[in-house]
Amino acid sequence: MVNFFIFVGIIILILMMVVFYRVLKGPTVMDRLLGVNVIGTKATVLLVVMGVIFERVDMFVDIAIGYGLLNFIASIGAAKYFQHHKVLQPRSQWEEDLTKS
Amino acid sequence: MIWQFDILLLTLVVVCGFVSLWIKDLMGAVIVFGAYSFLMCLVWTGMGAVDVAFTEAAVGAGVSTIFFIATVFHTSRTIRYNKWDLSTKFFSSIICILMGFFLMVAIGDFPAWGDALSPVNNNVAKYYLENSMEETKVPNVVTSVLADYRAFDTMFETGVVFVASLVIFTLLLQSDGRKKLMKSAFQKVSFLNVSESLIIRKACGLMVPFMQLFALYVVVHGHYSPGGGFQGGVILGASLILLSMAYDIKKVFARFHMKFMIKSLAVGVLIFAGIGLICLILGGNFLDYSALSKLFPSMGSIKSRYNAMLWVEVGVALTVMSGMFAIYTSLSSNGKFEEGL
Amino acid sequence: MILNIISILFFTAILYFSSSPLVFYLLNGLSICLILLGLFFFLGTSIGVIRFPDFYTRMHAAGKGDTLSSILILFGIALFVLNTGTLSIGLVLVCIKILLIINFIFIGSPTATHAIMDAGYGTEVKHWTNDSEGIKKKK
After folding, report:
1. Touching check for B224 and chain C: CB below 8 Å?
2. Which terminus of chain C faces fewer neighbouring Cβ atoms within 10 Å, N or C?
3. What is the extent of the structural domain holding B244?
């Protein structure tokens, strides 16, 4: 049964790498934020899976609760930032585009 | 340690580091750094360092990303290049590469991971592992090492948090912000046309009580499970930060005013150092908790060490909580204390 | 939230009152099925995040699939943990903690999705239309 959970963890990690491609490439900042949000949720799951593999779920589940509680704060903060500034690209680059056109 | 996990995780971590250097947009780099902290937490967990992983989880997910965002919020989002900058960057990159090369060479001298014969595992650590349960009755050795055997280090770490938040508060404090703090009267200035989301407010209202309850559990239960004062304090601070992001700083200041925050910042360090001082007065060494048994004869020396650790953790939590919140409010409102992010 | 706790109490009661090995195998099978289903949904999520043409559709894939797959995998693990060894208070406590994580993800993840989507709409991320580049390239 431990092998099964190692298998589950490896599959989650490989799929996390696939999502990470979006963080790496992401045409806009929002795509990066989206990818990081997915990675954060899956990190919570992976912590519990690791707990089952090490047979100490009671230890690892506390960290996972911490993550489950906290990992949407960063998303909300970044969202607030973009709601205030309302600019997707950094300012100077945007101005350069204006002068070019 | 599971080697398949380690290979995949370390690849992701290295890629993360390179990507965050490569992105020119600082906001993107901050977001990629968030992913980096998630992955580092998983790496620590894989190595079995549960307390370190918990710290990384609380700090990385809760506050550090928010601090970065708040800093970018009031400064520039791009890196500006000058010709002078490029030449200095060239030299500094050469120094960095040389330094990295020497560090890589030095790795060869380290003992292998988990080596039983390495000097770390033989001298002090062995003593802690063997005698911690008898001397302090604390099953989680990390807590007893941090709060009892090595309490001197922890006290100065708390002092570092205290000084850091005080410095950021005083550096960023502006004159109108000071007036507002002195009068403790706030007028809401809606200079930015931000849509106030009901969904976020309701969700935060649901989550914040659980967060604070869990933080208290982490502080008190640190003797038996991963966690302790620092992690619990960070989670408490993160809950206040979340509240001030969902509403505004004024809403949180109605309950925890900045004066109160600065006071509790000092009181936390004072509890820690005060317990040490009481030990000194009672005839023991500084922070030697077993001397406290003279003050409370009903507790033996073991029980007094156990209880003193709990109080020390509470002090650390108080300092860290108010420190994190003070740093956030100073950074996000740029010293004006009007509205947050 | 209440449904979760009722269901886990139900499984606990089944384990408490019956000691036949059939129940053990059935519950293990159920947990494995749930975990595999969760992995399947996560596969869908990652494919969606990679392949969809614009930000809003990607957000749709990431928001829904991610939450559902996390909940399914965690519920499967909770059942598995409940099923290991003899039933004790400690195991049920760990189970309830995992259920709490499920609830927090259930509240937090859609909120984050909503916030990101709102910010994307506010900053005017371009949305995919019929005559945008994606279609042209395919022709």
Report:
1. no
2. C
3. 116-341
Q: Could you say which residues of chain B have pLDDT below 70?
A: 1, 79-83, 177, 179-196, 338-341
DSSP string, B275-335: HHHHHHHTTS-TT-GGGGGGTSTTS-HHHHHHHHHHHHHHHHHHHHHHHHHHHHHHHHTTT
Could you tell me how many residues make up chain B? 341
Mark yes or no for CB contact C115/A76 under 8 Å.
yes
Chain C from 91 to 110: CB within 8 A of any A CB? 93-94, 97-98, 100-101, 104-105, 108-109
Contact B12 A17 (CB under 8 A): yes
Domain presence at residue B186? yes
ipTM over 0.85: yes
| Angle at the Cα of C14 from the Cα atoms of C11 and C19, rounded to 5 degrees | 130
Give the closest of C47, C49, C94 to A58, CB-based: C94
Asked if the Cβ–Cβ distance from B57 to A13 is below 8 Å, we say: no
Q: Where in the sequence is the domain holding A57, given as residue range(s)?
A: 2-100
Residue range B35-85, pLDDT digits in tens: 899 999 999 988 888 889 999 889 988 899 999 998 888 887 776 666 677
